[in-house]
Design goal:
By secondary structure, the protein is an alpha/beta fold. Helix content is 43%, strand content 26%. A hairpin with a 2-residue loop joins strand 2 and strand 3.
Length: 312
């Protein structure tokens, strides 16, 4: 059986274990994080995504463990298919230490000619800090310093926070997508569907909340994306609790614009997926709104075909 290896590295207290817990739990992870102890050596976990088994490794970030990993990197780092490197965005006193550790890890990958993609997460970028000029300036400088590695590795940057579960799931989903060439094709299909029906967005998630593909209307505001995602999380809870296959809903954005949506469970092979489709409500023409929601059914066979290609 094909197994992929994902490594989470970073300094102690960067937030690696909190991120993994948020990804794994999604519902009610906050209390567990409050009682969390530092990871000793390496914590391993496995999960399946699109029919492939992944081993997820949480590398303890204390200095004694870092020295051990770097002393014998082939034992710990060989075979890594995807690296999530976590930096505490709020701890600017340790930026240099964190970059130095990353550089040593990438030096090993370079020596063994590994083209492991690297997702760098500037963590603890909490919602109330989004407009913090000094923090944003610090992160910008960090990104500029880290681009020196981009000539030899595919490096991607994300800002994440446990107080914004979508930021974590987006980073994790984007990282996983780097290992599946065909996932971009699904997002392309969603783009065509959104344009055809003038939809606000369409997205497909696996049962763990990992995004398989999505497309938002251009220039959709971040706060509106977050509202949609919060609604989706709540509806997924209800679908699981009530053992439903379909859930329709209606709500409105802060600007008063109403929208209608549907979350539908798609059973493909032995896997369950959640399809989210949202359009603007036509206040003067409710039948048109209903008709547009019905038309998404016509695109389902094509979506299912794409998914089958991904999991085969």
């Amino acid at each position: 059986m094909l197994t992929r290896k994902i490594a989470f590295l970073g300094l102690d207290n960067a937030g690696k274990t909190s991120i993994i817990t948020a990804i794994t739990k999604r519902f009610g992870f906050e209390e567990e994080i409050e009682e969390m102890m530092p990871t000793r050596r390496i914590a391993r976990d496995t999960f399946r995504f699109l029919g492939i088994e992944f081993t997820q490794m949480d590398f303890g970030g204390q200095l004694q463990y870092r020295k051990e990993y770097l002393k014998n990197p082939s034992k710990y780092l060989s075979g890594t298919d995807l690296l999530f490197y976590v930096i505490d965005a709020q701890d600017n006193k340790r930026y240099n230490e964190s970059i130095d550790y990353l550089e040593q890890v990438l030096t090993y990958f370079k020596e063994v000619q590994s083209d492991t993609p690297v997702a760098i997460l500037f963590h603890k970028f909490d919602p109330e800090l989004v407009r913090d000029k000094e923090l944003n300036r610090n992160i910008l400088v960090l990104k500029q310093n880290l681009t020196k590695f981009s000539g030899e590795f595919d490096i991607f940057f994300f800002e994440t926070s446990i107080y914004d579960i979508k930021s974590i799931m987006d980073a994790f989903s984007s990282g996983l997508s780097l290992l599946f060439d065909k996932m971009e094709m699904l997002s392309g299909l969603f783009s065509d569907i959104c344009e055809q029906y003038n939809a606000i967005m369409i997205a497909l998630f696996d049962s763990r909340g990992v995004t398989i593909g999505e497309y938002y209307r251009p220039h959709l505001h971040l706060r509106e994306k977050l509202k949609i995602y919060d609604i989706y999380i709540d509806i997924q809870k209800r679908i699981i609790a009530e053992n439903k296959e379909l859930y329709e809903f209606s709500d409105k954005f802060k600007n008063g614009q109403r929208f209608s949506g549907v979350v539908e469970v798609l059973n493909i092979g032995t896997l369950d997926f959640y399809l989210l489709f949202i359009i603007e409500e036509e206040e003067q023409d409710l039948e048109k709104t209903v008709s547009l929601l019905d038309k998404i059914e016509a695109a389902k066979p094509k979506m299912e075909n794409f998914i089958l290609q991904l999991i085969q």
